[in-house]
Amino acid sequence: MTIPVRSGAAPDPVAPHRPDATGLVDRYGRAATDLRVSLTDRCNLRCTYCMPAEGLPWLPGTQVLTDDEIIRLVGVAVRLLGVTEVRFTGGEPLIRPGLPAIIAATAALTPRPVISLTSNGINLDRLAAPLRAAGLDRVNVSLDTLDPARFTELTRRPRLDAVLAGLAGAAAAGMTPVKINTVLMRGVNDDEAAALLRFALAEGYELRFIEQMPLDAQHGWDRAEMVTAEEILASLRSEFRLTADPAERGGAPAETWLVDGFTDRAGRPARVGVIGSVTRPFCGDCDRTRLTADGQVRACLFATEESDLRGALRAGADDEELARRWRIAMWGKRAGHGIDDPSFLQPARPMSAIGG
């Protein structure tokens, strides 16, 4: 079912609170089965489109969920709320010391969810094998340029070699397809679309381009400066022949195309994706729920409100009560992110604090 992003989608006229359902459903008929868990708001890069050079005021340690608290809330989501996929994000999740134990505990849940990770790739070369052994299924690595000088300018850290080593380490550990996330910025790296795809095809990685979203700490996002999905595709088609992917998209955020004449590491047709969050929104099929590092439920990446689970958990709430609160939080999910609406307000939290 596709739901309009802005207006015209009427909510179900049942009770204004949660429905009598076990899963994380909302008033528009969507069910959240994909949980994004931020493990930390800290990061070892300082990407210009994410945060200032000096970093941000990090969450105090006492406010961040402990490993055991994360494991418990993930268990509530999987066992009681119908979540089937869990993705760990940050900040940078690889800097969380307890990450292997968190993944192992998640993999031990019944039913076992699909477990993935979004990372900048630094230190992934040495962590990929133990994380894979703990139960990690897939990994997405952020990579916006192949030029060392440009990478240093964008991230304010000279770590391109470390990111490339992380990608290779993930592939060697068997976490295929290894996916790359790329944000193109006008006048910065928008000339690298084809080169990045050539690199991904040569290495057997799967590339995803993402439209830059209004989630920067500086609140400097300008839609006129954003490289759109159509522009990205036009740039790729100048060098590659792309065919619409016949596979069912479902709730996946990326539209994908087959790259004619190329295959991946498993011999399957190579794919490239574009996540057009701004110009080609997929809100009508969204199946995500988010848990921040300090224990807040977010129904949408662009939500301006949150629901506290940490307070209830630390006050002694049992699993059923935590599940009830989570259901209520998701029942109020809006029809769409509303970026095109004149009343749109950028979330107070930046992407590094929300989790991807």
Walk me through this protein's architecture.
- This protein is α/β, with parallel strands linked by helices and 356 residues long.
- The chain has a single domain (24-354), classed as Aldolase class I (TIM Barrel, Alpha-Beta Barrel).
- It contains 10 helices and 14 strands.
- The chain has helices at 67-81, 99-107, 124-134, 148-155, 160-172, 193-203, 229-237, 310-314, 319-331, 351-354; strands at residues 24-25, 31-32, 34-38, 85-89, 114-119, 138-142, 179-183, 206-210, 242-244, 255-263, 269-275, 288-291, 296-298, 307-308.
- The chain has a 12-stranded mixed β-sheet.
- Helix 6 (193-203) links the parallel strand 7 (179-183) and strand 8 (206-210).
- Helix 2 runs parallel beside helix 3 (124-134).
- The longest helix is centred in the N-terminal third of the chain and has 15 residues, at 67-81.
- The model is unreliable at 1-16 (pLDDT under 50).
Strands across the major sheet, in which order?
A: 9-10-11-8-7-6-5-4-3-12-13-14
Query: Percent range for helical residues?
Result: 25-40%
Number of helices: 10
CATH C-level name: Alpha Beta
Helix and strand run: EEEHEHEHEHHEHEHEEEEEEHHH
Distance between the termini: 24 Å
Low-confidence spans: 1-16
Structural class: alpha/beta
What would the CATH topology be?
TIM Barrel
Please name the CATH architecture: Alpha-Beta Barrel
* Computed Rg: 20 Å
